[in-house]
Specification:
This protein has four helices and six strands; from the N terminus they run αααββαββββ. The chain has helices spanning 5-23, 28-53, 59-70, 94-102; strands spanning 78-83, 86-93, 108-124, 130-144, 149-170, 173-191. It is globular, with a radius of gyration of 22 Å.
Length: 192
């Protein structure tokens, strides 16, 4: 009997983990809502970047928008920056990226995102979070009459999406919900 105890214990643990994993899985309806929320957050980020980069935005407004945009990201997330003039990609912490964007030496900056879509489905990680990837194309145009600068590029970027269960207190009750945070934004290609 003693030689069967380790086998029974392993079977019990495996069954318990399997049942727990099933309880934590995302239903198709919930997944659709999470996908919509993730895409909405990416679209919000697109708007925020456009506002921060615009030379017509007042400093106080740009700072307020940076604060809002930063809330979309997980801690320590980084944004990739590239140029058609070099093969190197630089990565900056999100706040630093926004500050650099606001300080670009152009008279006029126009940034637009398009063709936003999932390229990988959400996959459950050992820590219980789900991870997916959304890809976007970013069109950047910067002009400066005085310096005679006129720069344009199109960059394909992959944005890591983290979905995790969180809790909040409402009227003394603990409510669980799934939240979406953006992770690193990786440059995959840049063209003129």
């Amino acid at each position: 009997m003693k030689k069967y105890i380790p086998s029974l214990l392993i079977f019990f643990l495996a069954t318990s983990i399997s049942v727990f994993a099933q309880d934590e899985s995302i239903s198709p309806q919930r997944k659709q809502a999470i996908d919509s929320l993730a895409l909405e957050k990416v679209k919000d980020l697109s708007k925020y970047i456009s506002i921060i980069g615009s030379k017509e935005t007042q400093f106080s407004e740009a700072t307020r928008v940076m604060d809002r945009a930063e809330e979309l990201f997980s801690p320590d997330a980084e944004m990739g920056v590239s140029s058609v003039n070099t093969n190197e990609v630089a990565y900056y912490k999100i706040r630093r990226y926004f500050e650099r964007l606001m300080a670009l030496n152009y008279d006029r900056v126009n940034i637009s995102w398009y063709d936003i879509h999932y390229i990988s489905d959400l996959e459950r990680q050992p820590d219980g979070r789900y991870v997916g990837v959304i890809t976007i194309y970013q069109r950047f145009e910067g002009t400066s009459q005085e310096a005679g600068l006129n720069y344009r590029d199109t960059t394909k970027k992959d944005i890591t999406i983290y979905v995790e269960k969180k809790q909040t207190q409402i009227s003394g009750r603990t409510i669980e919900f799934w939240d979406v945070l953006l992770g690193d934004v990786r440059v995959t290609e840049t063209s003129a």
